[in-house]
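Internal QA ticket QA-208
Title: Verify multi-chain structure generation after dependency bump
Assignee: T.L.

Test input:
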Amino acid sequence: MPLVTTTNMFEKSMKEGFAIGAFNINNMEIIQGIVDAASENNSPVILQVSSSAIKYARMPYLLKMVEAAVETTNIPIALHLDHGPDFETCKECIDAGFTSVMIDGSKYNFEENVELTKEVVGYAHPRGVVVEAELGKLAGIEDDVNVSAEDSMYTDPNQAKEFVERTGCDSLAIAIGTSHGAYKFKGEAKLRFDILEEIKKKIPNTPIVLHGASTVIPELVEMCNKYGGEIPGAKGVPNDILKEAGRLGVSKINVDTDLRLAMTANIRKVFGEKPSEFDPRKYLGVARDSVKDVVSYKIANVFCSNNKA
Ligand code: G3H
Ligand code: 13P
Ligand code: ZN
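Actual output:
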């Protein structure tokens, strides 16, 4: 099956109340781990690439590896640009055969974000490519903002409606309390589901995207730290909250940090327990298996038990 857009995945997701997993890729082991897991669960999957991942892995390598994944499986796979910083990067990915791009205009003011998103939609749609846009700002706990500043960073439901109508974007990433990386919450993990519900009321037919949605799996954090890592106090979004997000209308859940942690924890363990090992396949193979385990668990237990391709 050739690469697909996210359109059908999201339609099904909105009808049935579950999210599709979108996983960040950088190298062969990550791609194989994700795709093997999705394939074994017969689940659609979104492979997403950031501009720094493109810089790292190089576009032709990424494209060929994703092509290999598509050729060797039977599940719907979408190839998506994550956090496209500008029109040129979106154009490069659309021209290269991506089926979905994100234009991240969240760093701009509302009007500039609208204009930039419209420009990308204008290029993408005639070429059969769908566009994810972002409204609102994802804060990190290190940003230490006060409550009213924090409120102004969340996505405004009225603005969301105007934004989608004016830009024609296909899906919308919103800010309801998640943040990127391993440190998402100081105390209890909490998302503003009231804002999500308001947004869904205003734009019921627009698929909603949740960035910064890694669980920061405690066992993996512990394992990293046990084998010499230093990531104390890391905390993410628990699985039951992610499940509820899917039920309330989130269609795409982005996961990168959990894969990074899985690989690093397992590579550290090999290095810690077998200091004489120096065959990269021995630790990269274990890392690949760990990515597969994380993705498989998420697909089977969190995103959907009924998300069959
Ligand atoms: O949201 C960001 C993703 O985790 C990608 O991160 O730009 O370091 O590849 P990156
Ligand atoms: P995490 O850092 O929570 O994995 O979020 C990844 C993400 O949002 C990619 O766009
Ligand atoms: Zn993100």
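Spot checks passed. The mean pLDDT is 95.
Status: verified.
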